[in-house]
Amino acid sequence: MSLANSDLDIVTGPSGRPLLTSGLTSGTGIALAGRASAGFAGPPSPTDGLDGLSVDRLAAAGKAAFDAVASAVLLLIALPIITLLAALIWSLDGHSPFYAQPRVGRHGVVFRVWKLRSMHVDADARLARHLESDEAAAEEWRRCFKLTRDPRILPFIGNLIRRSSLDELPQLWNVLCGEMSLVGPRPFPSYHLAAFSDEFRQLRCSVMPGLTGLWQIQARSDGSLSDQEDLDTRYIRHRSFRLDLLILLRTLPAILSARGAR
């Protein structure tokens, strides 16, 4: 995926702060634009007179409150779906249908991300054998830590819940507990983060990891590590409540299209 041809267009105004346009660009892109000219000041802002730190604290508190309320409502709605899928997974091999993996969160704190188990219980051993015997698969894994043909995936139900992202529904609990946000860079395992630069790892650790983000609506598994870094950096540098809402609105169409899903 070439980000040079991406329909994501982030522009800042004279103040340096990005403002959303009234609509979205074509496809799954999101446009941000500044004021038309330095001479147009626009209507007074409710945050005029507040310093940057106060505004940041207000924004963080508002985002946390929205995450708590929205995740609680969504978790109640998703509970019957999670229960049904958990029963189907358990029926395959009799093992726990839930899986918790250590991920790196804000300020570098390691926490457990909850997922519906889409893989065999011996997934790590299966992966090691596959990468050792298939050089093309090993190269694909080094490029994006994803496999087109993944021997770890459970038959039928595994691919279904991964392509639809239903395996991530339990992460609403992580959001409710304050370990994640609805929108932000996806939390990566330590081996994935190790592939990035120190500067980018520090930047990612400055914000809460998210259930969805620009990566999910723009590329998902189609992008390379450099694409992940570019999209996550764009989100972190230009994040706002309005941008979060637009990403949430674009998440369902992206999931339904299954573009880039593996």
Structure explained in plain terms:
The chain has 262 residues and is mainly alpha-helical. The chain is 47% helix and 9% strand. It is built from 10 helices and 6 strands, in the order E-E-H-E-E-H-H-H-H-E-H-H-E-H-H-H. The protein has helices spanning 52-93, 123-133, 135-144, 157-163, 171-176, 190-193, 198-204, 214-218, 225-238, 241-257; strands spanning 9-10, 31-32, 98-104, 110-116, 181-183, 210-212. A two-stranded parallel ribbon has the order 1-2. It has a two-stranded antiparallel sheet with strand order 3-4. Strands 5-6 form a two-stranded parallel ribbon. Helix 2 crosses helix 3. The chain is globular. The two termini are 15 Å apart. Mean pLDDT is 81; it is low at 1-28 and 31-47.
Strands, count: 6
The number of helical runs is 10
Rg, Å, rounded: 20 Å
Poorly predicted segments: 1-28, 31-47
User: In sequence order, what are the helices and strands, one letter per element?
Assistant: EEHEEHHHHEHHEHHH
Shape: globular
The SS-based structural class is mainly alpha
Main sheet specs:
2 strands, parallel
Q: Order of strands across the widest beta sheet?
A: 1-2
Structure in a nutshell:
The protein is mainly α and 262 residues long.
Keywords:
single chain, 262 residues, mainly alpha, two-stranded parallel ribbon, two-stranded antiparallel sheet, 47% helix, disordered N terminus
Could you outline the blueprint of secondary structure elements for this entry?
Blueprint: E1 9-10, E2 31-32, H1 52-93, E3 98-104, E4 110-116, H2 123-133, H3 135-144, H4 157-163, H5 171-176, E5 181-183, H6 190-193, H7 198-204, E6 210-212, H8 214-218, H9 225-238, H10 241-257
Parallel strand pairs: 1-2, 5-6
Antiparallel strand pairs: 3-4
